[in-house]
Amino acid sequence: MARKFVPQIITANDLFEGDVIYLKADGTWSREIAKAHIANSPEQVETMLDIANGQPGSIVGAYAMQIEINEDGTPAPNHFREEFRTRGPSNYFHGKQADIKQTGA
Amino acid sequence: MYAYSEFDESFVRNRVAQFRSQVARRIDGSLTEDEFKPLRLMNGLYLQLHAYMLRIAVPYGTLNSRQMNQLAYIADKWDKGYGHFTTRQNIQFNWPKLRDVPEILEALADVEMHAIQTSGNCIRNVTADHFAGAAADEIEDPRPTAELLRQWSTDHPEFQFLPRKFKIAITGSPNDRAVTKAHDIGLRMVRNEAGEPGYEVIVGGGLGRTPMVGKVMREFLPKADLLPYMEAILRVYNLNGRRDNKYKARIKILVHETGTDEIRALIEEAFIEQKKFFQAPPAELVEGLEAAFAPPVFDNTQSLAFEKEQSENAAFRSFVETNVAEHKNPAYGIVSVSLKPVGGTPGDATSDQMRVLADLALKYGHDELRVSHEQNIILPHVRKADIPAVYAALKEAGLATANIGLLSDIIACPGMDYCALATARSIPVAQEIAVRFDELKLEREIGPLKIKISGCINACGHHHVGHIGILGLDKAGVENYQITLGGDGTETATIGERTGPGFAAEDLVPAIEAIIQAYLEVRDSDDETFLQVYRRLGAAPFKAAIYKDEANARAA
């Protein structure tokens, strides 16, 4: 029996800043996981990965990550490593947790 | 200190220029990431979890004030105002931007520094005893040899694509502070029966997935034979080391699978061949290197300031007890500056702290600083009479933590707070342990204890050789920590043994506390150290203390 499909989003690092980024519905990237576009089928994952990998001039190391879905429909990480990537290190208030403005990217 | 020759200078400047052009070509799309990645790694630039990371070589851990000030400048101008000193005596910046890296490398070249061979399957930065040239127990300063090895290994055309990375450590003292037995090659400076200086050569040590204590390949190698013998070891490894499996590619596996005697025979055979091509280094080179590391002109003026301050100031006395080591000149002391304040990140220094350290080195320390593999900074030559002033300045800068060699002097790798390879976090574990034992006020009573934490099996935090080692793993999507006991990174090197099942993050500190409590209960006297107790009694009393509930459950 085929394993049940788990919704996924595409993540990568920004080539210039190194920061974690997430692929949005319009094929551009956000620094915030909440803005990531959710793939609901293996085919959608493939298509989105192709879009991501078509941008080698601005991103590095795109991959699909499994997620959980919040009550408001936004994606949330389902592993601690991905959770850390949404936020930054725990020893200093650096990285995303400090950089993301209320308006978002 | 060694000063760059014209050759060194132009080599480093050329590499900066090459990398500048490589970055430009990556940005304009001429280079793909697959093409660019090996080039950036050759220049110490990693892409980590949240950002790029630049790893800068500090050859054999030696810095002068100008270099330390430049690191502070880089931290302020292109990073977030701090740097992280590593267990390989290097420094890492955690937040550089790709476009700025060529500028950073240029700024490093201005003070004779670089990030070359800090990554990749090549001979990495040669590490050395951080007390080199100062220690009372030293036979000979290992740094002229370390510098010779740096020159030999830098851009060595044959050894840029070894089966795997290759690490060399050297000590000139019988008390091994450089963990030589856990390196691909460890060199110990010794003298033969005739009193001639040479090296004991240890090969095939290493930590990581398959920890091993190195094997003695040569009990005595005459000094003049060093380079052909090193060349022989590397050639045997380069030809025979496994390239089919990354996890079996280090020389320790080759030595282990082939057998020590067999490998020794291969090396000796290659050595005879290599000796034909290697003349001993020319006398002027050897003399030049020795002159570069000649001891400073010591000031032996007598003064009672040191003794007086100790009798009047309990905090200073306590600092001296742990942080000042015996210098070969009785009028001097070696001051270890702890980068482990309670609750802080092991190995981190702010740019302001770096400047304070540089100033102190210049004013009181013959312009010398060292980075230790234990992630502290050393002022190797401080006149005892000046130590009270140094202490006062350190205190002002938040650098006077008196814990060297004690429980809170913890080694920790960056772990999953930064590292892309990590399977769990290390830094918060170190912070929690230090904070908890600060509350208990037990540290001095516990005495010498080395806790070492790695956030993955690669063991950058040297957990295998910690008296108490902690390894962070991902167990079914949750951070989980295994404990090893009885490890030792000194001349009596031993790999620690796992206690049993790991602990969830919230159960780890209580487990460490239980281990310490058990130690305090079973030690013969206050002088019997944790490691001595472990060697006397084994793991049993500690296992009983941390797996109590399970034992009770079984009994029920």
Automatic annotation (TrEMBL), chain A:
User: Which InterPro entries has this protein been placed in?
Assistant: DUF2849 (IPR021270)
Highest taxon of the source? Bacteria
Checking Pfam families in the record gives:
DUF2849
In residue numbers, the region (Disordered) covers 72-105
From the Swiss-Prot or TrEMBL record, give the protein name. Answer: Sulfite reductase
This protein's species is Ahrensia marina
TrEMBL record, chain B:
UniProt protein name: Sulfite reductase
A Pfam family assignment: NIR_SIR
Limits of the Nitrite/Sulfite reductase ferredoxin-like domain? 52-110, 346-397
Keyword Heme among UniProt keywords: yes
What are the record keywords, sorted?
A: 4Fe-4S, Heme, Iron, Iron-sulfur, Metal-binding, Oxidoreductase
Q: Does the keyword Oxidoreductase apply?
A: yes
- The domain of life is Bacteria
| Gene Ontology terms, MF aspect | 4 iron, 4 sulfur cluster binding; heme binding; metal ion binding; oxidoreductase activity
